Amino acid sequence: MSGKTLLQWIAVLSALGALAAYALRPENKPVAQASTTSGELTFAPDFPVADRAWVLGAIAKARPEARRLIDDVDGRTRITAFYEPYGYWLGWARAVAPNQYEVRLNLARLDGRRKIDRDTVTLHELGHVVDYALVPDMLRDRLAAQVPTSGVCPDKIQGDCAAAPERFADTFAKWALRGAVSAVGAGYSLASPQSLEDWGAPLSELAIELDVTAG
């Protein structure tokens, strides 16, 4: 199979995975209804202890508003590992059951040459979980549309060709880290909005709504 054909199949599988995840998400409920009591992030038993430390460290670096959103979903999220040193993906997020999510991290790469991108990839994938669990589709699509276009479409799945969920998750990570990401980041070749603060304002409102509901 040629490299181009392989990437086309990857794009198809990615789209199918996203559709499966959205089929299991709350149906555009208000946050007060979609959210549930959280808990603590769980790791698969074979996920290395040393790697757990940097995953938790990445979450600790997120701005408070992003942490609040992550706190609402982390008790429903399990972190697992996969090892593909030459694989395309650094991470993967999916819904495995109603209100249950899994984040898979490619430790072969994140413990290797892509160590610098650990924070961005972790928060990118958790951004997907926040999207699946809490963010209405219309808001997600509106925020994704605010990501500037570049006129390029690498591999037919990056840049201007990145799907709305990827545009959202990638920018969620940048917003959560206040722009402190590497040039490569999670690998989608996306530009940042002119103001990450303005972009993330609706997410800050969601975080406040969660606090009000919890109170």
Question: Can you characterise this structure?
Answer:
This protein has 9 helices and 4 strands. It is an alpha/beta fold. The protein has one domain. A 4-stranded mixed β-sheet has the order 1-2-4-3. α7 packs across α8. Residues 1-23 and 28-38 have low confidence and may be disordered.
What topology emerges from the helices and strands here?
Blueprint: H1 3-23, H2 31-34, E1 42-43, H3 49-61, H4 64-73, E2 77-82, E3 91-97, E4 100-106, H5 107-110, H6 118-133, H7 137-145, H8 164-176, H9 196-214
Parallel strand pairs: 1-2, 2-4
Antiparallel strand pairs: 3-4
Helix pairs in contact: 3-6, 4-6, 4-9, 6-8, 7-8, 8-9
Structure described in brief:
The protein is an alpha/beta fold and 215 residues long.
The number of E-state strands comes to 4
| Helix content, binned percent | 40-55%
Number of domains: 1
What's the arrangement of strands in the largest beta sheet?
Answer: 1-2-4-3
Average predicted local confidence, pLDDT? 83
Span of the ends, CA to CA:
55 Å
Counting H and I runs of at least 4 residues, what is the number of helices? 9
> Quick one: overall form?
globular
What's the gyration radius in Å? 16 Å
Percentage beta strand: 5-15%
Structural class: alpha/beta
H/E topology pattern: HHEHHEEEHHHHH
Largest sheet: 4 strands, mixed
Low-confidence stretches: 1-23, 28-38
